[in-house]
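Revision sheet: structure tokens.
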Amino acid sequence: MNVDFSEELIETSEGADIALNFPKAEGTKEITSRINQTLENYIIKQINMSDNDDTNGDLYDAIAKFNYEYKSFKNDFPDSAQQWEALIDGEVTYRSPEIISIAITSYLDTGGAHGNSSVRFFNFNPQTGEELRVNDLVSNMQGLSEVIKAKLITEIKAEADTNGMEDVFFGKDFQLPETLGYSDEGLIILYNPYEIATYSQGIIEFTIPLEDVSSFLKIN
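Predicted:
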């Protein structure tokens, strides 16, 4: 395989509390640079609190801007005890000659009733470094949807205020999650709070063995 991974750790508490821990691809430059830039661009977007997107793909510039926004907040509200946090944690969940799966967990707290957590899976072609989208992974959307829907119903049936799929998806029919991930145990299905149900329910995650969905996937 042309790609290995090390761990990149960036921490600072000079202003806001910032801790970024994520995989960094190493190996063939043409491949690894694509993977690293995709992950860094996503992290930059996660911690971008300004109205514009002028970080130019530089992680340290994005950190400096996050701290600037925090200091501006403290200047505007000097009596506030609010401490901003930006916590990013990433891990390689699966590797094979056909696919590399990486999960990035983000937690941001910049005021309000609670912080916001989300998880995003990235799937890459190890031969090119290109990101694989859901359409690149799934050969039969309908078949996969039926399996996931059945499993999802069992996961949420204990919710007394959930009467059907329309309650889970904010009035819409069943939807696949925005991203899918792979692990040694199978296909990871994860819905973030903004995708499904209510925030109080939090992130919904479960794994379906690959043998149960392999006929619907392009990559196994």
